[in-house]
UniProtKB/TrEMBL annotation, chain A:
Biological source species: Lasiosphaeris hirsuta
Protein name: Origin recognition complex subunit 2
GO CC term, one of those recorded: nuclear origin of replication recognition complex
One GO molecular-function entry: DNA replication origin binding
Superkingdom per UniProt: Eukaryota
Alphabetized PANTHER family for the sequence: ORIGIN RECOGNITION COMPLEX SUBUNIT 2
Hydrolase in keyword set: no
Composition bias type Acidic residues, residue spans: 165-183
Main location: nucleus
Assembly: Component of the origin recognition complex (ORC).
Phylogenetic classification of the source organism: Eukaryota, Fungi, Dikarya, Ascomycota, Pezizomycotina
Subcellular location: Nucleus
Biased composition regions of type Basic residues, renumbered to the chain: 194-207
UniProtKB/TrEMBL annotation, chain B:
GO MF annotation terms: DNA replication origin binding
Compartments it resides in: Nucleus
Family, similarity comment: Belongs to the ORC3 family.
Coiled coil (residue ranges): 508-535
Organism superkingdom: Eukaryota
Segments forming domain Origin recognition complex subunit 3 winged helix C-terminal: 616-719
Predominant location: nucleus
Protein name, per record: Origin recognition complex subunit 3
Stretches assigned to the Origin recognition complex subunit 3 insertion domain: 369-519
Positions of the UniProt region annotated as Disordered: 1-59
InterPro entries assigned to the protein according to its UniProt record, in alphabetical order: ORC3, ORC3_ins, ORC3_N, ORC_WH_C
Record key words, sorted: Coiled coil, DNA replication, DNA-binding, Nucleus, Phosphoprotein
Amino acid sequence: MVRRKAPEREPAARSLRKRELPIDPYEVPDDTDSPKRHRQTKPPSTTTRSSAPQDAHADDASHEAASEAQPTVEPTPTKKRPGRPPKASFMNGQVATPSALRQKKVAETPIKLKGINGVDTPSRRNFADRSARRKSARALIDRVVGGAISDDEGEDGGIAREIYESSEDEEDEEEQQSQDEHEDPNPTTPSKTPWKRRKATRTRKRSPTPPRDLPSHEQYFYQNKPGLTKTSGNSLSSLDLLTHEEYFSVLRQIKDLHARDVQFLQSLHSESFPQWTFELSQGFSACLYGYGSKRSLLHQFATYLCAKGHLPQPSKIVIINGYVRTTSVREILGTIGCAIDPSYKLSSGTPVALAQALLALLSSTSTTIVLMVNSIDASPLRKAGTQSVLAQLAAHPQIRMVCSADTPDFPLLWDSGLRSAFNFVFHDCTTFAPFGPELDVVDEVHELLGRKARRVGGKEGVAFVLRSLPENAKNLFRLLVAEVLVVMEEGGVGDVAEGPAVEYRMVYNKAVEEFICSSEMAFRTLLKEFHDHQIITSHKDSLGTELLSLPFRKDELEAILEDLMS
Amino acid sequence: MAEKEDNAFQEDDHRAAYVFNPLSDGTAAAPSAGAAPRPAKRRRLPSKKAALSGGSEDQPSGFVSAGFLPLFNGLESPGAVNLRRELFEAAWPVLEGRVQNVLREANRSTLDEVSTFLRAAEGEKDKIPAGFIITGPNIASQDLLFEQLAETLCKGSQTRFVRLRSAEAPNLKATLRKIIRDATVRVTGDNEEGDDVEVSVGQDGRRYLDYDLEALHVSLKLQQSRRVIIAFQDSEAFDNGLLTDLIALFHSWHDRIQFSVLFGIATSVELFRARLLKSIARHLFGAQFDVVQTGAVLDSVFKSAVAGSHALLRLGPSLLRSLVERQQDQVAGIQVFISSLKYAYMCHLYANPLSILLADDARINRELLQAEHIEAARSLESFKTHVEASVEARQLNHARSLLDEDDYLVEQILEQARKRGDYLLQLLRSLHLIAASGLISTPFTDLYITALSEGIDLTSEKASVLDPLQRLGPDEVISLIHRLLSAIENGSPELDLQGWESDGDELVASLSEIRDEVEALVEHAKDNRKVLKSKYSAQSRVLRTTVVAQKVQLSHDTATLTDEDKAFTEAIDRLAGLFSQNVNCEPVASLFLHEAWVYDSKSPYRDVFVPRPGITLSRALSRPNDYLGCTCCSKANGTVTATMPTTAVLYHLYLEAGALINVADLWSAYYALVGDESDIGMDERTALVHFYRALGELRAMGFVKQSKKKADHIAKLKWI
């Protein structure tokens, strides 16, 4: 109630307080602090003041304003009334029943009101600390007020102090200094020791380096502490991101420092080929894991197996590239079927049924099939259905399976049923070999950065696509490129997000003029072709005008245009 | 070189699947390789089948022999290599057969119960008989059970058995199709490729859709059988709706086709029923069957395959313990245990040249043992301890001959085969006697492992066998002796232990003597209307309470023993003495040359079956030098150097970063390390390519993902 009163009396002071207090709304009010004194000097006058409902309303409003304006006093512990449902009382207050009861409520609620209202909700990260801090603040104050501190209480006080300060780390050194100074001349401060302690804890907590050598789960909680994720605002905008073209042209010139070591490592692994062969012959499947591409290792292994009777005859090796985005169970089964019997044609049906038919076919021959799966944990193969088909295949006595896994979590792919069907033996095959076709680096990184994935192929890609299209498609694309370039030169039309764009209608008109197409239908058909290859994009602007744009940079466009003209 | 290879099979690398062709290097010929030889192969199918049955035996063996390499850096003689191979080929299939037998036996009672139930339910008109088989959480071992069920239930009677797995039953149509196909294909017998169209043509030439149960009905009518059993192997994984539909459908066909269903249930019947609609559940009438628990199965597999006298190779105690612990802690199926067992055999015979000593005397001779074998034997730990022990025992000649004379050592080596047999016999007999005595409740598995690691010594403090033995009453003593005698007489079929009455006639005689004596004493005591007791038995101790000066005093008092009691006590003492004398063995590690026939290495097992890819990966990335062994990064010692592979550098930075990573900062940190001003002096674009590649790899390995919180930020995903 004092709180309510105070702003009315001296708004200047309130606003002042409002400005400085959010830094630490729970600051221990020492004796010089105002609110407390206010409370003491101005005994509650509310009850006498508002007896009419009208008045109460005004009161309520002002009170609300006050509560919004004044985060300060909230934690002052003496005000707290435990056990009241604050929300309900607030509602009651709104109904404005003019009665003594209501008035009483009005007089009592403000403290809680604010918190529940959420007007003054401090940032979320403080929320959890709040009650602990409030309690410790109260403990401290009680002690100050009580004046008498015995030695055995000292420890408790220390803890309370520590809790209270635990989230003050961000405070400035200066501020602390001033506080200390502020504290010093005050002879009534009951004990100095907690403050000394406080300094000690502060220096400990302020250490800028994160704790080292934490176990990983601790590390997780440490790094996910709310509020700790502070990163700079730097962005990559100044950096010219790589295109496919540039990536590959630079990549070709890079000489790997470790090429020899990688080669040596691979030769070490290849010494285990006889062992793996033996394991395969005993009905185990081998799974190679570890960092680095294992594609060429598997390829070597396949060569080794073919070399001199390491496999019973007749036998076939089928290599499956799990990382290829289009990999499907059907294709895998088809290839295996082809390996068993070249004239074999897959029937239709579910993959499981297909696999069964395939295994029946296999059982009727004496062929041994070695399945080599590159990156069995790549996303195209991750579906449970695919894995169970693979397991079904691996469990067949005439099929031996070797696979490689790149991610660290690959064992999660299989439950115990699949695992025993696969009958895996695992080998650490860390190769450090660079990933080649497994990884579309540029797309992968751009996707990671949230940039629009530049389309695959760049200039060559466009040339490739156009080569297979009819003449007027080429002409249309040339027209488009030219128009877009013109727009680029002029700079301006089209929004920034989509790059410079040209109006659909305008392009159509020009196309008709140049006899590229005669009807809108034909025009659409041509555009659709471009869309399918992702070499144009289209969107509507705010007015609904259809715009066409090309997902290329200017120099690329120029190069394309040059190609098209020549 | 890598680059050249890259070019060679580049095209294939972008195909989802292809047939490997070593000759063409996969460039042009690979795609056409499949299509080229097209001569009519279909016709040769039957003949191929014949070839399979005839030729299958020698082909795998040819394959295997290629697998065994000469050891000792290739110096091992072909004879020794062959011997190892033959040993493996002889040992494992025998053991595997026995294990399979044990597994099949374990399910026997369940099978009987299920088939009895189904037979009894044959006449059921309104409801579908349903067997709920509680298989336990391990779905890996279900396969065998259902295979056996199919065998048993189809035998003789005109019954069709269809096994369904959730993976094969995505929707109603596909499931029905599968049911109909499976139920009708069996009818046509061995021609598994019989076209479904044929089957689904009825007598009157009508054709049915392949998911129409009418087709099944017609085909069953032709075969004069009306019964179809559908087994849902992993019922928990089936879709609720699908189960409901199927059961409703079965029920509506029940008057024409007699359906029975079996559910493999991992949790409990209650949970299962909670999933079904009441109206559907009403169609079922069922019984619950329990499958033998994995623990019991493990015990019998252990007895026959690990401890049994048929097991050629002994697994050492520490390996065994970790195997058994894995069975208990993780719910690894019994199949995993068997695989591990097999792998131990493979490891030992494949990689240990001394494993030829496992062969019996006839196969192994002086010529087979090369200088390298002898050298290897001398370097064994047990050889050293043996020599040291004999020096201490002042058998200097023996020790010197072992060290210097090859022939003497060979003699000793050959002799150890016999000693090994003796040791194992003694071990198994002791264990069998302990188990037969029923005095301690430790499972056999633990008993065996402890016996191997610490030996059996009943007189020692730790042994807890003698104590309960001494406390036995006279009747129990007699029955104990009976049990022991019958154990000696019959041996143990589980352990493959023959009775050894003839060997142990002394023991048998003394046991019978004690038994007769105790029986006489009992008779005598009965005449005197007294109870026979020994000084160890609880009754002989009397707790005496006396009240002295209003305080209760407790005192133990030994009751007086009669002469008969004393005689009985003495008999018990003799029995205990006899028992501890006959039941003993040394720890296996104390035996000379035990390395040749005991395999106790945990690391290959752990590496191969319980991989830790996360740790491996993070080690590779945080200390690449461990793998690469290059000079340039050797100084790093856990920190970052510019020469490290880029991914490793980024991984270090990644570890230091918080949950959210600013890629711009990551890039500048990386560029500061390798850029123009560093030792390496990479130009920006090259560095950026490296950076891209590493970032792409980190993403592919699941370390980071895109974050939408801030521009150019990525979120950390792994805390290894």
